[in-house]
Amino acid sequence: MQLIQSLPIDAETYVAEDFHRCIRPPPECPNCGRIGHLPALGYYERNLSRLGKGVIRIKIRRFRCRACKKTVSILPQFAQPYRVVQNETIELFIRGAPYDECVTRWMSILPRYRQRFVRWLPEIKRVMEFDSNRAPPEDDRALEWWPRILAKYGNLGGATLVFVSLFGITLFGRYQCHRPNPPLG
């Protein structure tokens, strides 16, 4: 399972300061609910776009529950699950031109992210309707939803944190590793 964690730093600082070493396990296993049973397992690495040129390798902290033997990884809020382009760049793209250099470098990928969001919007609407405190906007035009969602949750990272925690989805799809879970302590 993958949980999203809000951090007070950006991706560059996360890497420069080896912040992955500071990631603590959730107080209880999101799979079986046992408290205090998540010792560190290690890390896995993945690529993430830079706001400058190129990509950086970030380490994602993993834990394994002693009770149910399932793993839990903690993805920093600045990264999108299963996407190489970091959240800040995706936001800049979706908001529209004129585009910053960090957006133009990823123009071969970013239109596909937008298409994925548009195709996934019916499911986003469906799950939001279950939570009366988060009623969806009335407008059916797909890209009209984007600024409303970002305004409601602050940014793409905040929206992803809420959507994964409450609904087990992202703005781009449902992944087997995401299920609704309690917030990290």
- Strand order of the main beta sheet, please? 1-4-3-2
Overall morphology: globular
**Major sheet:** 4 strands, mixed
How helix-rich are the residues, as a percent range? 25-40%
Number of helices: 6
Structural class, judged by helices and strands?
A: alpha+beta
- Strand tally is 4
Distance between the termini: 16 Å
What is the mean predicted local confidence, pLDDT?
A: 87
Radius of gyration: 17 Å
Low-pLDDT runs of 5+ residues are: 181-185
Beta-strand percent range: 15-25%
Series of H and E elements: EHEEEHHHHH
Domain count, please report it.
Answer: 1
Key words describing this protein structure:
alpha+beta, about 180 residues, disordered C terminus, 4 strands, globular
How would you describe what is shown here?
This protein has six helices and four strands, in the order βαβββααααα. The chain has 185 residues and is α+β, with helices and mostly antiparallel strands. It has one domain (2-167). The protein has a four-stranded mixed beta sheet. A hairpin with a 6-residue loop joins strand 3 and strand 4. It is globular. The protein starts with a strand and ends in an 18-residue tail after the last helix. 27% of the residues are buried. Residues 181-185 have low confidence and may be disordered.
Question: Can you lay out the helices and strands and say which pair or pack?
Answer:
Blueprint: E1 2-5, H1 11-16, E2 40-49, E3 55-64, E4 71-76, H2 87-95, H3 101-104, H4 110-129, H5 142-153, H6 156-167
Parallel strand pairs: 1-4
Antiparallel strand pairs: 2-3, 3-4
Helix pairs in contact: 5-6
